[in-house]
């Protein structure tokens, strides 16, 4: 189905699970979803649209000749989300948090080097290229999406944080189904039909996507997005475990150094605030 088709599957089949999650949170907390106001709608619409754009831009990056450079620049999302969170939401970034973000970003760049001989030099030297611009734009959109979702949750001050997060998740996925699904239906209807045909596998993907998003949205309703996105890089350690046990892959020296920087960043963001 391609990247956008797979993205639609996550939203389309994740929406029912997100709705069930919202109902469960409302039932357990004995509260009802809050009324929707203009501020909430603006934030959640901004987050949903930016997430779609970020995915589309990342797909575009991968069609570039120098796609590795573009992907590396997309990983500046951590730094950008800290800047955007401070500018638009007033989320303060302490010196320790900023150091953690810097260490984690450096670690991720070393884990996916543009040039194994001179990874950072090649990264800085290519900043004027088209691939770098597309990658940076993708990272910007991912960062703005995270800020939008936290802004939407904060726009519901009367709701408990878990309910605000679940409510934001349902609205975001519904908007994305309408926008992305409508666009694909007009431009590539076969992709939408294939998504419906593959409903068995898609239900699993939808459930896992909704579960992951529930975790992200709840965390961002509690903590600044820069903290959440940095700590979320712990997924790379799980990736390492899977690659070693399933695919018998081993870390090279550069990747091991990168994992070390990443670990320091995660430790700092967790215990140093």
Please, could you describe this protein's structure?
There is one protein chain. The protein has 273 residues and is mostly helical. It has a domain at 1-31 and 160-222. Helix content is 81%, strand content 0%. It is built from 13 helices and no strands. The chain has helices at residues 2-29, 38-61, 67-74, 77-89, 95-111, 119-125, 130-154, 161-187, 189-197, 199-222, 225-231, 235-246, 253-271. It is globular and about 55 Å long. The model has no long low-confidence stretch (mean pLDDT 90).
Q: Features of this protein?
A:
273 residues; mainly alpha; 13 helices; 0% strand; globular
Number of helices: 13
Structural class: mainly alpha
| Radius of gyration from CA coordinates | 19 Å
- Main β-sheet description: none
Which percent bin holds the helix content?
Answer: over 70%
The tally of strands reads 0
Mean pLDDT, to the nearest integer, reads: 90
What's the overall geometry?
globular
What is the straight-line distance between the termini?
Answer: 43 Å
Beta content comes to under 5%
SSE string, helix = H, strand = E? HHHHHHHHHHHHH
**Poorly predicted parts:** none
